[in-house]
Amino acid sequence: MAESTVRRNVVTPGVEPTPIGQLPEVGQVPSHMHAQVVRADRFGDPATAFRPEVVPTPEIGPDEVLVAVMAAGINYNNVWAARGYPVNQIAVRQKRGETEDFHIGGSDASGIVYAVGEAVEGVEVGRHVVIHHGWWEREDPWIARGKDPMIAPSARIWGYDTNYGSFGQFTRVQAHQVMPKAEHLTWEEAAAPTLVGTTAYRMLHGWAGNAVQPGDVVLVWGGSGGLGTQAIQLARLAGAVPVAVVSEEERGHYAQKFGAAGWISRRDFTHWGIPPLVDDTAGQKEWTAGARAFGKRIWEIVGERRDPAIVFEHPGAATIPTSVFVCEAGGMVVICAGTTGFDAMVDLRYHWTRQKRLQGSHGTNDEQAIAYNDLVRAGKIDPALGSTIGFHDLPAAHAAMGRGEAVFGNVSALVGAAEPGAGRTAG
């Protein structure tokens, strides 16, 4: 058995599961814990796919850390996990030899270290931490050759591709994922932005030749959401000019709160989705007129005829044709998701002749996660916490997100933290 799959028992005899909102003494690990659990026979609507259960507390391997979760952030990847689409994560892990027939999701966490594996250095029991979501096998040959670990064959997203994410009282993570919590933030604030923030950091800074530069126009889809608010702030910190795309005026003003130069309502346009075929002259003319009008709105906000050097994408199917169209020559459309669909269409005429880059971006590596977390710890990035919910509200919150009803900014659920507002260091 590979070392990375060996589990070390960390259970403290006689310690029983504690109620949600409570924790045992630091370092004492109960045999079982409360968690929001997805099982294959419940795949579908997240409102019913998630269910609270008591399950065994995960054991850890030599290079792993057990963290008591104080608060857990919410993002779209566990909407997919609850649906079992496009990937049945339980079945995938069972094919790899894992025995659990359930999924505990959650890819954002703030918490307290309760146990460390024998090979772990630099992480101590009792430390207050946040977790980044990049996971990979440390012996992966790709990584041994010095390449980006988040592109390695073994790379996964913790709490989506892996089990025992942050929607349980304890989560199992690799030691390199552990980062110090910002002392000025509450547990729920600290848990809210890490996945979206590190994802946004990689998208804007991770692609040589098209990394964000001072003065760049950056078009940010979903500018009032968790991902968008982080992208806007990161673009501003780099000296760029972020322009938000939102669904309504109130959301536009929310995006401006975090530094957007202005906002565009997507409801002012109707050309979304796959453009008409090239030989449909009238349809092409109508679609192009809509895309050009959208581009002109960007110019109006910027104050000059400048197209986006970077288009920050995640809707996918509905927006990719427009994103490629309005991106400047030699610029980059960088995408990390496909919430409106995966089957996006690119008009290659605008892509190759103007030498634009369509770049996929996924997850984070350690360097990028640490750089982002340093900005948070320095108070330069606001977590944009829009709402705090209870542990038992996790199913409904994912269902609302799946319907597009997510609140402004990020959402956190309290797990070990009993009351909102706890977690700041006094003084």
From TrEMBL:
PROSITE patterns: QOR_ZETA_CRYSTAL. It is found in: Cytoplasm. PANTHER family: QUINONE OXIDOREDUCTASE. GO terms for molecular function: crotonyl-CoA reductase activity; RNA binding; zinc ion binding. Residues 44-408 form the Enoyl reductase (ER) domain. Residues 1-21 are annotated as: Disordered. Homotetramer. InterPro entries: ADH-like_C (IPR013149), ADH-like_N (IPR013154), Crot_CoA_red (IPR010085), ER (IPR020843), GroES-like_sf (IPR011032), NAD(P)-bd_dom_sf (IPR036291), Quin_OxRdtase/zeta-crystal_CS (IPR002364), Zinc-ADH_QOR/CCCR (IPR051603). NCBIfam families: crot-CoA-red (TIGR01751). Keywords: Acetylation, Cytoplasm, NADP, Oxidoreductase, RNA-binding. It comes from the Bacteria. Its EC number is 1.3.1.85. GO terms for cellular component: cytoplasm. This is Crotonyl-CoA carboxylase/reductase. Pfam families: ADH_N, ADH_zinc_N.
